[in-house]
Fold this sequence. Notes:
By secondary structure, the chain is an alpha+beta fold. It contains three helices and five strands. It has one domain. The model has no long low-confidence stretch (mean pLDDT 88).
Amino acid sequence: METKNLWGNLDLDVPLRTPATVLKEQANMLSSITNGVLSGDVRVSQTSKAFLTEMYIVAPAINNYEINILDIESDSLVGLYPVIVRPQLGESDQGIECQNEEELTTVLEGILGSKRIKQAIRSLVAQSKVVSSRQNSGFIPFRSQAI
């Protein structure tokens, strides 16, 4: 006797875009628009009841200096939404609740396009270029020695 499928059609071929997927796409976009001078790093961790997704801006030329720019927390391992988005660069300590991907995208656009984030990106690009030009020119910084 053949075993009957009691699960029904699970539609596993229908792709779901997780909050981490949305952030990884933006991390790749950051690398592209800065010509690789900066990159984005997305880290996902979990507790017994939630996922925490963190996004960092990384400056490889400056010893992989990184800034945590936002966190996304979901209260459930079962569903993708709702999530709470928390900016990390002094924008606001308040979490912003998003019920779906559309709301998440709108909130992320506001955070990633904010004056504070743009200022951080410009600063890191400028500092990275200075470090890169020193490395390429053979610059050796003066180091004092104890006598």
